[in-house]
Design brief:
187 residues, mainly beta, 15 strands
Amino acid sequence: TYDDVKYTVSVNNNSLLLGESEIYVSKKGGNIMVPLRKTAEALSFDVEWNKDNKSAKLDNGSINTTVYIGNDSYYMASSTAIGMSAPTSLGAAPEIINDVAYVPTDLFEILFCTVEYDGNNVYINPETEKEEIPNPFIPYEDMESVKKVLDFEPVIPSYIPDGYEMKEITSTGSDFLQIIYTNDIDN
């Protein structure tokens, strides 16, 4: 380790058995670093190591992420829908020490866990109520409403087949418009 302080980590209020692995404070940034696989698996994540690009994919069926050794960029994505958080720096990149991958404890906050510190003890627990990834699509009642936020003049199809009608108008901001048409058969 980088210091003489001995840390313990508990996941779901159970102390992790780390074997030869030790929790340590990173030289750069002072982040507390924990063994990735043991911590993630204790939080019910499947961990898949890719030796070719030195990355680990974590997935618990609801959310996932991939961390890359030496790259201080972290995100969270939905495993069941389209959506992800913006990439975030946590001040320390994942590292490998004695064939064990380590990540900053803050990674687990991105993955909807609470991380608390009590002296040399680290407690990581899943949040009981998980946040949802925000839906980037904003619904509009009609074309006149959405035109007010767009930076362009939308082009509406000149021909709509019989039986089809505009069902939904959404936008993610000033530069994207989505119009969904349906018919009675598809409803």
